Amino acid sequence: MTTFVLLLQYTLIFASVLTLVALGGCYSEHSGVINIGLEGIMVMGALGGAMVMRFAPFTGFTLVIASMLGAMISGMIYSILLAFSAVNLQADQTIIGTAMNMLGLALATVIVKAVNMAENTSNVSSTMVYVEQKKSFIIRFGHFEFNWFMLIALIILVIAFIVLYKTRFGLRLQSCGEHPQAAASVGIDVYKMRWSGVLISGALGGLGGLVYILAGVSEWKFENGVAGFGFLAMAVMIFGQYKPLRIGVSAVLFGLFRALGSVYTGFPLLVALHLPSTVYNMLPYIVCLIILTFTSKNSRAPKADGIPYDKSSR
């Protein structure tokens, strides 16, 4: 397999992760709730999908669908913590999201270790192995490995654009993030819309977590988390101006820099620089800082984003 094919392959799979998670954050932010807990949601979604892959009696495309549902449901259930705290209790959304990131990683690690110990008392690892199951998610076209999630991410991207800008639900959702009092005055249930935005965010974030673990080789340690992809997805969302199509383009750009960390040894020019491999692994985060430094001030978040909704205020 040529280096350029590998680069394209890794770029698309990492872009798929970022697209799904960033779109999830986009729904939440358009409803008026900041979802900093995407990192924790990704971990819990990865846990749900991995559990299905490990214990479900399915194979082939049925396993793909079952794993997707497991990841999405797990992400939605975990996002209830944010929805209830931020919408109903009007708690600080930044603190809630930070707590969710720490709790999700710890909770998933404990659950996986408990599952491993139940099968083998000497196995206290937080690792899950899914070599055979992974084959169900891949179709080969010559040297190129096509992952089903590349297509799924594209479909969800198109659906997000249609939902947000062409449907009554999407327009109502955005109105709750711009001016919730005005939305409520015309009969829109702001609480319900914000719950919907957060739950959709949880479903897509959980699905992104599943795609992330499938981007690896054959196993993943839950205690390692998702390497900051939740925060990177937020950067993609901000750089994409909270708009689905721009988010898709931004995800490909950031995915390209992340992919270089996996295949840079195939480029003689990069090898000749004699830089440590960690530098290439840091590239997407360095690029993220540079890009946001120059573009974040021009980014326009929804006006009521992060502001708890109070019926009595006008």
Automatic annotation (TrEMBL):
It is found in: Cell membrane. The keyword Transport does not apply. The chain crosses the membrane at residues 6-26, 33-55, 61-83, 95-115, 146-165, 195-215, 221-239, 251-273, 279-295. It is a multi-pass membrane protein. It holds the Pfam family BPD_transp_2. One of its GO terms (cellular component) is plasma membrane. InterPro entries: ABC_transp_permease. GO terms for molecular function: transmembrane transporter activity. Keywords: Cell membrane, Membrane, Transmembrane, Transmembrane helix. The keyword Disulfide bond does not apply. PANTHER family: GUANOSINE ABC TRANSPORTER PERMEASE PROTEIN NUPQ, SUGAR ABC TRANSPORTER INTEGRAL MEMBRANE PROTEIN-RELATED. This is ABC transporter permease.
